[in-house]
Design brief:
It is built from five helices and four strands; from the N terminus they run H-H-E-H-E-H-E-H-E. The chain has 163 residues and is of the alpha/beta class. The protein has two domains: 31 residues; 119 residues, no CATH class. It has a four-stranded parallel sheet with strand order 1-2-3-4, sandwiched between helices. Helix 3 packs parallel to helix 4 and helix 4 packs parallel to helix 5. The longest helix has 28 residues. It is globular.
């Protein structure tokens, strides 16, 4: 009788752990497939893609991310949008970003976005952004120059290549 009681007790204690394991496996199965990189300058498709990349890179981030987007260079009033976005980026970065935050930069105009990121970080004090994650979504050709411009700030840099 004592052995039977022990076996029942062990089964009762093990059952919740088995149920948790199954719930974890279900959660892993229901993770959405990554959003495909847009092949054109469709603004809403790019914004959905950038949002998906941000969600997939939230590890270690404790606050909602700051996301910056510029449309394709062929869009009407690109120059005006570029200037407005650059001004916003400079203002946000210049005020300082606290540890646990994330900045996400993405655009079908990768080179122009890279230029804006580099200019935004030009006056940042060395080491002033430790613990801040910066995700740059763009062409491989722009990765090294963005990485070099961000390195002095001490950010955790993540590059996501658009193909």
């Amino acid at each position: 009788m004592n052995i039977t009681t022990r076996l029942i007790l062990i089964a009762c204690l093990a059952l919740p752990f088995a149920a948790c394991k199954k719930e974890e496996e279900k959660a892993k199965e229901t993770v959405a497939a990554p959003v495909a990189v847009p092949t054109n300058g469709d603004k809403s498709a790019w914004q959905a893609y950038i949002k998906d990349v941000a969600i997939r890179n939230m590890e270690g981030v404790t606050n909602p991310p700051y996301a910056y987007f510029m449309p394709d260079e062929s869009s009407p009033d690109f120059a005006g949008e570029y200037e407005r976005q650059l001004e916003k980026m400079k203002g946000d970065v210049g005020r300082g970003i606290l540890e646990g935050n994330m900045l996400v930069f993405g655009s079908p105009a990768s080179a122009k976005m890279a230029d804006a990121v580099i200019e935004s970080f030009a006056t940042i004090q060395p080491g002033s952004m430790k613990g801040v994650k910066v995700v740059f979504i763009g062409a491989a050709a722009d990765n090294d120059r963005v990485k070099a411009a961000l390195a002095p700030a001490g950010v955790d840099y993540v590059f996501v290549q658009t193909k």
